[in-house]
Amino acid sequence: MLGETYVLWYREMKKWLGRKPVLFISLFSPIFWILLFGKSFNPINLLPQDADEIVALLRAKIVELFGTQDYFTYVAAGMTVAFALFQASFAGASALFDRRLGYMDRLLVTPINRESIFAAKVLASVTRVVVLTAFLMAVSYIAGLQLKADITPPDLLLALLTVAFISLILSSIFMLAGFVMDNPEGLFAIGNLVNTPLLFASSVLFPTAQMPTWLRLIAEVNPLSHGADLVRYFLVGKPMEDPYLVLALFGIISVIVFLTSAKVAVKLMEK
Amino acid sequence: MDPVRAERLSKKYGNFEAVKGVSFRVGKGELYALLGPNGAGKTTTIKMLSTLLKPTSGDGYVMGYSVVREPKEVRKVIGVVPQDLTADDELTGLYNVYLQARLYGYSSSEAMERAKRALEIVGLTESAERRVSTYSGGMRRRLEIAMSLVHDPPVLFLDEPTLGLDVQTRRTIWDLIREFQKEGRSLILTTHYMEEAETLASRVGIIDLGVLKAEGTPEELKSKLRGDRLYVELYSDEDANALVREMTIAGLEVKGDSSQIVVSMQSEEVLRKVIGLLNGKRVRSINIVKPNLEEVFIEITGRRLREESFDAFRQRVFMRKVR
Question: To the nearest whole angstrom, how far is the Cα of A7 from the nearest Cα of chain B?
């Protein structure tokens, strides 16, 4: 079972690395997001530069509101999670095309466990997200992300683990969509439908504290918010309550979602 | 014991019954051809026997394993060449076959060895390291065969293996199929090309609208038709209909199909009668043919095997390119 999953996962990796232009583009779109959004939305720039007192006041307010030294640090750390969502929301395409092009039938007549077909695709998606996120973090650091002063390698790994858990949840769900749906347009429509609201109704771009009550209530149950807070806690030291408990919950939920989706996907393969 | 047995296989999609209780057996080293038009239920039958579809009722046995109860055992002993081009065209031919071997549980080095051997059998050694997207239609078909053969299965299913291929490539594939048969494999092939069934098959099952209508060696089936067929084509359907009526009155065995009519030439008397009846009529063409499976098919179903699948194949190639 593990061997089969590895063989199929390796195929996905080979395909991924073989598509150089796609790889290039998928690296750049999140960079545009954090650079353009993170750098242009800087409230300090709104003020006259000689108004030292007001600038100092605003800086203090930013730290109070965002919990980070500047807005860029806030949004760049949060975007890692949104990026996991963007990547995962189209993960199902590979399943859908394998089904449409007959490759899936080719796999289904071999004596492998059908769970491994699903698992390989989801794990490949998680791998892609984690690798790209690590790259994104490096770029953010170069662009001015202020890491916490006492950061250690385990902190970096825990931040990546957070992203891995989130992408495991999202990739499982969207991969399942790739096993249910028959047309790519529908799949992409679902991805787009989910992406934007999930992003804006979260603490990725803005803190939930300043949202209207109804939006805050949504944002506070949105897993992206907790994921973004966790990444900020590990990377930039923004305080949060019980980070390890939240991380453990993410771990448990992601495994449950993954196993459940795998079960459903296998049912769908039996026609 | 026969390697493949279909026992009253049925498949329903909602209210539509695609396959209605099909039963047949295929012996060792035998090539069984399911012949029928598109939509007859050939592919559905093959998909049930190769565990891709669950029968609504009935069962199939491959090397003694039930496709319903022991699908995993069945999968170990079958190779399937599907109608679609299933190889991953972003990867090389060799990698596609190698990956297939890995999925049958072979170690990395053994899988590589088997993949190379399979590619050699189908004559793709020189293109092994090329991406599949650069392959021609015939090469892709051969790659599909290599992928299905890498674990050396005793039973091989081929779903329209020469669909849309040119004559020369078709011959190459036929030679391969004959070779597999000589090796003692049992083969089940679907086709709507009657000459394919005629040249390759040890036995033919004629299937139409989900029902196995007739079964036998090509010779047995053809011997059911008495005498040659005489085709007469007129300039209009009305003329043809009128002629059919006249001929029926004259005691001839005749069938009309739009502007064309077919007469069975059971005796020499028939030809004289036909010529007499045609006297003074505007005739577009006259043809006398030795009975072939196409004739048998028309006789049994009252319809012609339609030639409309070339576009289906082109569409598939196109789909591959879209990705």
Answer: 7
